Amino acid sequence: MKKNILTMLVAFAATLSVQAQQIAVVSTDGSTAFYRTLKTAIEDSDPGSVIYLPGGGFPIDDDVIITKKLNIFGIGHKAKGVNADGYTTISGNLHFGQGSDGSAIEGCYISGTVNIAESSKDYPVTDITIRKCNLDKVAVHDKDCQDIIVNQNYIRSTSTFAYSRATITNNVLRAVQYLNGATICNNIFIGGVYTSRSGYANGYYAFLDVKSSSINDNVSFVPMRFESTTTNDNCQADGNMVHDDSFGDNCIWVGYAEWSWIFKNPAGITPNSNFHYQEEYLQHETKCGLYGGTDFDDDALPPTPYVIQKKIDTKTDAAGMLNIHIRVKASEAIE
Q1: Domain range spanning residue 39?
Q2: Element (H, E) at 7
Q3: Residue 246's closest CA among 268, 220, 266?
Q4: Are 156 and 189 in contact (CB under 8 A)?
Q5: pTM for the complete prediction?
Q6: CA-to-CA distance for 307 and 248, rounded, in angstroms?
Q7: Per mean pLDDT, which range of 44-58, 100-114, 133-147, 284-298 is the poorest?
Q8: 206 vs 18, 97, 157, CA distance in Å?
């Protein structure tokens, strides 16, 4: 892990020394190349490379399909925080296509969708990680996709999974649909699936067509009852905090309590929210919701070096040298 952090710091320092907004790509042999656009960084990088995005905006077109294993790290998606260079924004949609198995995206604000597999091709993509991002939604396009990890994100719209297998943990999200054999734990659901089919109650729900899945220790702002959504078959539910007193086993029923009574500042699907519990419900925090399970990083910082302080003189000294003082920190190591 120390070697990984050292490699990251060297690449990051090199990025600073070249020019702001440069994208550093570190290949598996440790060599570093620099690019001005995300498209060229993706297209020119070798399989297994790590792409480091600094603070700033990076547009991406829909014709860019990731067809090799790549790990893409931004410096975080929060507008305010300890990062002196702001945050990383990807404008557009990301597409993980055939050959991208084992890839990851972390620490970015993504204006569009993270697509996994291509709807025009019958070829599954496996082992994709989406972590500590703020994105519109996740869209899986092949039912045979497996080991999709969605962790510690803010997901603004309903995500769809084509009846694939995924692990969805410790997110603030709208709703999920079309899952099979999934693990859905420690999330906060705001609600986004509207059901109006005959035989089901109308309204917005957290799930639609979720089958043979584990649904544990979540918190829902909207109904989660199986009988109120379509064909949530053979699911096991335990320990969820809900308005519905009939949802699974050992549910924590809060009746019609306002969410501001339960959380300190539940401001929707935004990093401005504070989903730590009020004193009355504090006994549930380490089990139910974001801070149970694998826990939730309030700062949403990826394991990428970031600038916490910088000072650059406006003029060179008598020797023609420009004084630059930069303090860099890395939040955690990569395994």
Answers
A1: 2-329
A2: helix 2-18
A3: 220
A4: no
A5: 0.85
A6: 46
A7: 284-298
A8: 47, 28, 11
CA dihedral 123, 129, 133, 135 (to 10 degrees): 20
Bridge partners (DSSP) listed for residue 172: 154, 188
Spatial separation of the C-alpha atoms in residues 263 and 280, rounded to whole Å: 10
DSSP secondary structure letter of residue 109? E
| Domains held by the chain: number | 1
Phi, psi of 39 (to 5 degrees): -60, -50
Nearest to 259 by CA among 239, 238, 280: 280
Q: Is residue 335 part of a domain?
A: no
Instruction: Note the residue count of the chain.
Output: 335
> Domain for residue 120, yes or no?
yes
Residue 222, pLDDT above cutoff 70: yes
- CA distance linking residue 19 with residue 37, whole number of Å: 13
- For 110, which DSSP code? E
In angstroms, the Cα distances linking 225 to 58, 205, 334 are 41, 9, 39
Query: Do 24 and 13 meet the contact criterion of CB atoms below 8 Å apart?
Result: no
E strands of 159-202, at which residues? 159-164, 166-169, 172-173, 176-180, 183-185, 188-189, 193-195
Cα distance between residue 70 and residue 48, in whole Å: 5
Residue 92 lies in a domain: yes
Q: What's the CA gap between 12 and 303, in Å, rounded?
A: 12
Do residues 131 and 179 lie in contact, with contact meaning Cβ atoms separated by under 8 Å? no
Q: Coil, strand or helix: which one is 205? A: strand
Distance separating alpha carbons of residues 115 and 139, to the nearest angstrom: 5
CB 103 within 8 A of CB 65: no
Does position 297 have pLDDT exceeding 80, yes or no? yes
What's the one-letter identity of residue 334? I
